[in-house]
Amino acid sequence: xxxxxxxxxxxxxxxxxxxxxxxxxxxxxxxxxxxxxxxxxxxxxxxxxxxxxxxxxxxxxxxxxxxxxxxxxxxxxxxxxxxxxxxxxxxxxxxxxxxxxxxxxxxxxxxxxxxxxxxxxxxxxxxxxxxxxxxxxxxxxxxxxxxxxxxxxxxxxxxxxxxxxxxxxxxxxxxxxxxxxxxxxxxxxxxxxxxxxxxxxxxxxxxxxxxxxxxxxxxxxxxxxxxxxxxxxxxxxxxxxxxxxxxxxxxxxxxxxxxxxxxxxxxxxxxxxxxxxxxxxxxxxxxxxxxxxxxxxxxxxxxxxxxxxxxxxxxxxxxxxxxxxxxxxxxxxxxxxxxxxxxxxxxxxxxxxxxxxxxxxxxxxxxxxxxxxxxxxxxxxxxxxxxxxxxxxxxxxxxxxxxxxxxxxxxxxxxxxxxxxxxxxxxxxxxxxxxxxxxxxxxxxxxxxxxxxxxxxxxxxxxxxxxxxxxxxxxxxxxxxxxxxxxxxxxxxxxxxxxxxxxxxxxxxxxxxxxxxxxxxxxxxxxxxxxxxxxxxxxxxxxxxxxxxxxxxxxxxxxxxxxxxxx
Length: 567
Known about the structure:
This protein is α/β, with parallel strands linked by helices. Helices cover 36% and strands 12% of the residues.
């Protein structure tokens, strides 16, 4: 077997490289084996990553068992939860590209032969898959696993979002301060990605559905011994992929449609509509909103997980997890897609047991005939918007109300807490897209405040920002083009009527087209919120939400600039 690192470790011309490795304790024995990177996003800031130091130890064991030499390096990771509701959230989505770039640079600079990717949370998992697709070397993803559910609250196991809902209840007088303090201590009882089916766990499940995680591994709770055994097995398996010459881009390309179908069949986070196009871009395949629209409309919703129902992700794991969902969906999937197990999808599913039908149903008896995600269009979203029918009550799937406009998340949150938002209104939060935010913040807190105030079934929210996967109520995000680009959202005024019609996939502003154009002609782009640093650069470079908020870095065939020419 030939591998990349061998080329820079030959004697005598590369003896300096060998000496640098030996300075860290590596031996001649180690340097005669393939060098396998472990991109570890462990830190003590993100609870979903707190266990990754121990997980990495078992990955190292597996790599050694498989005949490789593990070389571990650190990767940044930020916590969506801690960043919620303040300027910190501007920085979360932009970390996706930084993480992908970081992994690419480390692997390429040191000519590593394969890589095991360790992450769990919202932007880290998609960033790692982007890096794997870009590098196109043998790669496997190992996630840290979800945390267990907390104490009982509001008729379900509590989680971190219960605190935000609880704050609305506290200010509305529905619970007392002592109850709220107890909730703080018991809502998140273990490390791990948050126990609900938000973006973090959605992307972990999507990665398994895509074939980039070992079967059954995406949903193993963070504190279980199975999590460590899966990590060790992944270390061994990446060596098998290297031996067989199976690289990440093949797996991602073959598994992308399966990933979209599983995400919508399980009512996954709307953020997949940002991340899968970005991963597709790195894999040199087209993943656009038209593809999402088609696959989501053709795929029934067969699993219900918090926030669509009370069961959380550990419950979903006990019910059968991703393999059980895929076995039910198999007639709709690409059964021959290759996976990191070294087997095809259909081969992986042969021995999968029947699921717990209280959580995972069959395609003949689904929770919903349409998918859990939906793409909307209309004069308010000419280039599409995204919503999540799986988390929206049937009676709220058609909603008409009067607009209440806010030009920032903070302004909307203040108004909701101050009881200034009324039943029958559509809360419009704009200038929060990839460019306008910048960074496309989540409108999670606004939705939770509406829930806590008892307005979840009486109001709606429309934004060019995005949502956490745990949101419910009536909401539409990713409105494209965004307000900062002069999209129609910038023309909405207080009192305008807006209709959200999810069955008809329509988002409509009840204002004549001529009046909309007149308003937009008078519109002026707002001043940048960040004039220096990475966010100033990101605001200039990021594409719109319907294109995955990507930063283009490839020369296209029709690009007039040849490589090496000045921009």
